[in-house]
TrEMBL record, chain A:
Organism, as annotated: uncultured Aureispira sp
Keywords for this protein: Membrane, Transmembrane, Transmembrane helix
Claim: Transmembrane helix is one of the keywords in the record: yes
Stated name of the protein: Uncharacterized protein
Entry's transmembrane regions: 80-107
Domain of life of the organism encoding this protein: Bacteria
UniProtKB/TrEMBL annotation, chain B:
Domain of life (superkingdom): Bacteria
RNA polymerase sigma-70 region domain span: 45-112
Gene3D superfamilies (alphabetical): 1.10.1740.10, Winged helix-like DNA-binding domain superfamily/Winged helix DNA-binding domain (1.10.10.10)
Residues in coiled coil: none
CDD domains, A to Z: Sigma70_r4
UniProt protein name: RNA polymerase sigma factor
Pfam families: Sigma70_r2, Sigma70_r4_2
Keywords for the protein's UniProt record, in alphabetical order: DNA-binding, Sigma factor, Transcription, Transcription regulation
Organism: uncultured Aureispira sp
Record GO terms (molecular function): DNA binding; sigma factor activity
């Protein structure tokens, strides 16, 4: 309970017994009435006067112009401030790690999708090709703990051996079977190749050097 | 409808829309927008407080309306120039009344000799002769009685009984303890009561 609020709100007769006792503890009845009268009359005067006194129509112009000027001056600063704020923005380490992982898996996912697309394109370009697929038609059940040994064998072993024999024959001496090849033509061809090499290479090579190069580059 | 009428109608429409937007916003929220440079928020605050601040300063400056109008502009200029000084967690109402009260005090300090000692309770002139309560003469008499109060008594009285600020808010505006506010208010009402005792309580009727 506040005496100032009571003074404003109620005349002494309007106060209840508790409030009256509270007031009389602090001031006389006459003082209360006089103070209340002063407040009521003053409030009445305030209301009357304040209705007559209004701010000038252009009173806010000065402040508004200042605000506009301030906004104008601050506009470019705001742009740089935005960029600066972007770089200065801090996040917890776990968020940074989570974001990195997210990006990693996202990119990985993209790769898978692209791979699938490539496969589809390959299938389209090979639509006339006949593919043969082997299907497992028979399932053989093996007892547990069975060790399956897979042995790989070279099926073209004999053919490769024959090729090696041919190469060794060819480097040693000309085969008798090649009777149609004339030595002069071979020499001429060799000369042409050497000439071409010398033209193409930055450093010309002698016949011996060229032969050495040829022998290094050729499997005999 | 001519161009002026259309312009007026347009500005009324804009005013109405702004009123709707700002209606539910607190003073502190509006001030936050002002800090970000929002003109509409400034206008809303101006609408809410300009009249109150003007009248408060009018009373504090002893009914000098022209000076009150000038200081009103200065108060709102201060708000615009340094809005960051306002802490949005505090009450805007107490802040703006503090700025206004300080402006008045500074004005009186600048006017040497025009400032009554802050705490000095003046000797009130003797009771007036019989004057009609609702007459202009009585209004003048009442204003004189208010002006004869010391500056701080009048400040507390106007803030409490005109602006409806709580005692705590007045303490913040006047930058003094709550007990001091109560004491100043008691003294002000007591002095005014004595001065107005010869009159019968009555409201002004125009």
């Amino acid at each position: 309970m506040e005496i100032h609020d009571l003074l404003e709100a109620k005349a002494f007769e309007e106060l209840n017994a508790v409030e009256q006792a509270f007031v009389l503890e602090q001031m006389s009845l006459e003082a209360y009435e006089n103070a209340r009268k002063a407040i009521v009359l003053s409030q009445s005067l305030f209301e009357l006067e304040s209705a007559q006194i209004q701010p000038k129509a252009n009173a806010s112009n000065k402040a508004l112009l200042a605000l506009r000027a301030k906004n104008k001056a601050a506009a470019p600063r705001q742009k740089t401030a935005w960029v600066a704020a972007l770089f200065a923005y801090k996040i917890p380490a776990w968020q940074a790690v989570a974001a990195l992982l997210l990006v990693f898996f996202f990119v990985r996912g993209l790769g898978v999708v692209q791979q699938d697309q490539t496969i589809i394109i390959a299938n389209e370009s090979l639509r006339d090709t006949v593919f043969m697929k082997e299907y497992i038609t028979q399932i053989k059940e093996l007892p547990a703990d069975t060790v399956v040994k897979v042995v790989y064998r070279d099926s073209n072993k004999k053919e490769k051996a024959a090729q090696r024999v041919f190469a060794s024959n060819h480097t040693g001496q000309p085969s008798k079977g090649n009777v149609n090849v004339k030595p002069k033509a071979v020499v001429q061809e060799f000369e042409d190749v050497l000439q071409y090499y010398n033209n193409a290479a930055s450093a010309p090579a002698s016949k011996d050097t060229f032969l050495q190069l040829m022998s290094d580059a050729t499997y005999f | 409808m001519n161009q002026t009428e259309r312009g007026n109608k347009h500005s009324e429409l804009i005013k109405g829309v702004l009123m709707k937007i700002t209606k539910n916003k607190s003073d502190e929220e509006l001030m936050q927008h002002v800090q970000e440079g929002a003109e509409w928020a400034f206008n809303a605050l101006y609408e809410r407080y300009s009249q109150r601040i003007l009248y408060f300063m009018y009373k504090m400056l002893r009914q000098d309306e022209a000076k009150a109008q000038d200081l009103l502009q200065d108060v709102f200029l201060k708000i615009v120039e340094a809005p960051e000084k306002f802490d949005v967690k505090r009450s805007f109402k107490t802040w703006i009344f503090t700025v206004a009260a300080n402006s008045c005090k500074n004005y009186f300090r600048a006017q040497k000799g025009g400032f009554l000692a802050l705490e000095q309770a003046p000797e009130l002139s003797t009771a007036p002769a019989l004057i009609q309560v609702n007459s202009a003469a009585f209004k003048k008499q009442l204003n004189n009685a208010l002006d004869e109060l010391s500056y701080v008594y009048k400040e507390a009285f106007v803030l409490k009984y005109k602006e409806g600020l709580s005692l705590q808010e007045i303490a913040l505006v006047m930058d003094c303890p709550l007990g001091t506010v109560k004491s100043r208010l008691s003294s002000a009402t007591k002095l005014l009561g004595k001065r107005l005792a010869p009159f019968k309580a009555s409201l002004f009727v125009d």
